[in-house]
Amino acid sequence: MSSMVLPRMFVVEQMLYSSKLQDVKGEVSKQLQSINLQSRIKPGSRIAVTAGSRGISNIADIIAAIVDEVKKCGGRPFIIPAMGSHGGATPEGQVEILRNYGVTPENVGAPIISSLEVDVLGHLEDGTPVYISRDANEADGIIVVNRVKPHTDFKDEIESGLVKMLVIGMGKQKGAESLHSFLADGYHRVMLDMARLILEKAKIVCGVAIVEDGYHQTSIIRAIPPERIFEEEIELQKTAKSYMARIPFKEIDLLIVDEIGKEISGAGMDPNVTGRFFIPGEYEPQAPKVRKIVVLNLTEETEGNATGLGMADLTTRRVFEKIDFDKTFVNTLTSGWVEASRIPTFLPNDRETILMGLRIAGVRDYRKARIVYIKNTLELSRFQISEALLEEIEREPDLKRRVKVVSGPREMVFDILGNLAR
User: Fold this and answer.
1) Structure pTM?
2) How far apart are CA 342 and CA 332, in angstroms?
3) Looking at domain 24-243, which CATH architecture does it have?
C-alpha cells in the first residue's frame, strides 16, 4: 500500500449560519429576569444547577451567570454533574469532566456536589421507575441547563436538550439505564413520559436552553418556566436544526475524521454529520452518502472514552492504545448501544489507515477519490477536500457560492512514522 499515490488536497471554508451572542453573561441575566426568577426562589433556599458532559461553548460563563442570579435572589446555588454514566460513572470522573470545561467552584462561584445516588421520583403506567439525582431532589429547587440540538439516535420534535437532561442527565446512571432499556421500542417516546413526570413532581425552578450557530458559537440563550419547557424546546429544536453545520457533498468515498470524543458528540462523532447511524430505521436525509469512515485519533478531553468508534470502518493503533475500556464500556452498556464501542480494524499509522480506507471503499484510481478530511463533526467551517470534489464545486453553482477554496493543491504530508503532519 505504501506505493499508492493519494490525491492532492485543498483547504476549503464553507459559509455557515452565524449569529454569535456578544454578551453571554448579560443575556443569561436578562433571560432569568424575564421569567421573574426572584419570585421563584426563596431567600436561603438551596438551588441545584445542572452541568452536563458536552463541550458547550461558554458553558462555564453561562453557569457562573446563573449562579450570580440565584445569589441575587438570596438562594444558595450548587452545581451537580448531570451526565448519566459519563466520567466512568464515578463522582470523581464526572467532576473531572466539568473541570475540563472550566466548570470549577472557583470559576462559577458555587460548590460542586457529585454523587451517583438517586431517588425514585415515581413510576410510569407500566411500573417503570423514574429516577432523579438525590442531590437535586433534596435541594429546594433545580435549574436545568443544556444545549438544544439534533439527537444522535433518533428524530422527533424534541431530541437533545432540556427534556433529555431531566431524564438522563439528572437520572444519573440508573436513569440512563432505565430509559435506554426501551431502545428496541423507541426510547424517545418513553423519555417524554418520564420528563412529564419529573416536571410534575420535581422542584424545577426553570430551564436554561442554549442554541449554537454553525460555528459552534453561543447564539441563543433562553430561560424557560417549567410549564413551557416542552413547548419552547420544540421551537428551539427547529432552530438548532436549521443552524447545524453539515458536510455539503452528496457522495464521499472516504471520510477522514481526525478526532472523536464525548465532548464533541454523545456518539463520539455525530451521525447527523456522517450519516452513519446504528439505530435501525434512523437516517439523516441531509447527510452525505459515505462509503467508508476512518478515525485517526481521540481527543484529550474524552479521556479514553471511545464511544462511537464502532461507527468507523478503520482506525489507527494510536486510537486503540488510548482507549479506556472501562469508561467506554460503562457508557455504551448503560445506553444499550454496544455497537458504538466495537473496535474496528486498526492499522499502524495514519497513512496505512487512509490507504486501506480507499481500498475497501472500492476506489480504483486513488487520485480520483472523493475524500473529505474534517477535524471533528463539531467544527465544519474549514476542512480539506480532494481534487475530485473541487471539480464538483466548480460544476454546481450553489456549492460554488457556499464553499470557497482557501489554499491548495497540496499533497498529504506524513512524518517519519507515517502520521499526518498537522
Assistant:
1) 0.85
2) 10
3) 3-Layer(aba) Sandwich (3.40)
